[in-house]
Amino acid sequence: MATKKKEETEITELLRDIVKNWMIMLPCLVLAGAVGVFVSKWIRPVYQVDALLQIESKNNKSASMMGGLGGLFATSSPAETEIELIKSRQVMGSAVDKMNLVYLAEPVNFMDRLLHREGRMDVSNFEVPWDSIISEKKFGPWFAVLTDSVGSYDLYDQDEKKVFSGTVGQTFKFPYAGDTVTFGTLRIEGVAGQKFEITKKRRLDAIDAFRSAFDVKERGKKTGILEFSYQDIYPDRAVSILNEVASSYLRQNVEERNAEAQKTLEFLEKQLPDVKSQMDSSLLNLNAYRNKVGSVDINAETQIILQRRMRLQQDILALQQKKQEAIRLFHAEHPTVKTLEDQEAALKRELGGTSSQVKKLPATQQEVLKLQNEVELSKVMYTTMLNNIQQLRLVSAGEVGSVRVVDFAEEVTRPAKPKPKVIICIALFLGFLLGAIIVSLKTKLSSGVKSASFIEKETGFTVYAKVPKGNPKGTKGTRPLAVVEPDDVAVEALRSLRSSLEFSMMDTESPIIGVSGLIPGVGKSFISVNMAALFAGLGKKVLLIDADLRKGRLHKEFGLKRAQGLSQVLLREVSIDKVTFPTEVENLFVVPCGNVPANPAELLGSKHYTDLIDQIKQEYDLIIVDTPPIMLVTDAALACRVTSQIVMVIEYNKHSIEAIKDGMAQILKGSPQAHASIVVNKYEHSRSESGGYKYGKY
Fold this sequence. Notes:
Blueprint: H1 2-20, H2 22-42, E1 47-55, H3 60-66, H4 70-73, H5 79-86, H6 89-98, E2 103-107, H7 110-114, E3 120-127, H8 131-134, E4 138-146, E5 152-156, E6 162-167, E7 171-176, E8 179-189, E9 195-201, H9 203-213, E10 214-218, E11 225-232, H10 235-293, H11 300-329, H12 335-359, H13 363-398, E12 403-407, H14 420-445, H15 452-459, E13 462-468, H16 481-484, H17 489-504, E14 512-517, H18 524-537, E15 542-546, H19 554-557, H20 566-570, E16 581-582, E17 588-591, H21 600-604, H22 607-616, E18 622-626, H23 635-639, E19 645-651, H24 657-667, E20 675-683, H25 687-690
Parallel strand pairs: 13-20, 14-18, 14-19, 15-17, 15-18, 19-20
Antiparallel strand pairs: 1-11, 1-12, 2-9, 3-8, 4-5, 4-9, 5-6, 7-8, 10-11, 16-17
Helix pairs in contact: 2-14, 3-13, 6-9, 6-10, 10-13, 11-12, 11-13, 17-18
């Protein structure tokens, strides 16, 4: 739980730092947005088309025509296998060759591409056959420049030298560098002056590029429906290419399924004359024997034996065919093969049993039975072979393959990418991430001190107050924030400072407080003015002296002129009464800095300055001296010689601990006996400090 709270605190701190450093974040977001818009405009629109194919597990038409041989040629291909076949070079290469994808004609114009008004050129042939170019990965680049909108163009070589002028729709051959170049176009679109870069890829490179833009996947699970998709900058070309892939794969599938049937048909047709010759020879032998011995009476018992042997031999032949088919699909030890072998052995034993019955017959009947058996068997083999040949011819003529096209590709009008909104959002996110990283690094690398307890531990001086940023619209005219917005969080912190100083000055008569800062801009004058207003609010008579004779600004806070002030008093030009002005805050008086003197340090270090303070401190309950920044000039140390309390104002997360120590040492040189304290201005409370609780009115 503690870890989670710590992580939330760190995230909150990071977000606060990001908001605080909006001057870093805003340029990052603007730059990222501009880059996102440029990228979305620069990327050419890409159109995606798709087509659907269905894989059939079995060709029912072929099976019905082949009868018993249907199982020999009907195969079922898984979708994964078909997908790999589709991605093969045989299919991809056929589409690449027919659609001339090895030739590239890319428009060359920065503004035309950015504004999406590029022309188009489809190259049908680009052959540069000499070795110096063939050794490269691609031919060219050459250039074609349109001479008019009708389709005439000038062709330039890689040295940008004009070599030929042609027209669209024709293929030209022309001499070049002692050889012949072939160049042809199918289509040209564009305005006069449009330039195209012509190159030719290696065939394998073109196939790889085609694969990257092509995709095939099974729609659903085990549905047998394959979805083809292809992306191209031209939608009509994408349709033609995808339909060519589907047609090429369909043709290949039909040819592949026909190949096995054709091989079997050729084998059977080659064996058919031998079988017919064997049948004729058997019939001739039977007739010759009958002519020799005359008519032989075959009784019913002999006829039964003959029919039985014929049936057994036919069954053995059928089993042998089935066993050969099984051996093609399975290994010799497969249970299916073993079962067929056992059945064949049983039939052979039964056939052998009939031989003993044949031997009991007279010799003439045995010979006639043998010859008739050979004739009948050869007739069966010949008839079966004729039927199979006829079936295979029908299969070859009516084969449609195991794949059919469900939906051909159709042209689309809306590009699939780029998506400008997505690109811009991603760019803005990356810009925000870059800004956050810069802010985080800036915070990590910052040497500024944040912890008040660390300051007290390292310097030995007490931090009397941590003043957050006040309402920037709180001060109105010449009235301090403590008067206009008494419930502001900054004023509440200043009340705490006032209370701490009161306790420190309880035993001091006519106390004098010196307020200084390490560097300009830390809010020293803001602390001085509002602290003086708070003390005046207690009914004390307070004098606020602007001792920053170089760049004093208290006269601006109260709407006074800078013409006369402390510098003129120290120069003995006017008396202190003449430059002491009342303010809109009751009991609060101010002495401005006056015109800038030539020697401000000498004036503040003079005895006249100390005498002046001794003179006026009897008239006021409290004197607050606003001094220059201590790290820039020695004026602050000189001005604080007369003070009993010194308040050093530092800015949150801006100063190193060494700078704070050095500043305190410098300012205490003039008044080593004074009581010194520190005020952290522009303090930022973390969530862990505030607990998410906001200050408000009660």
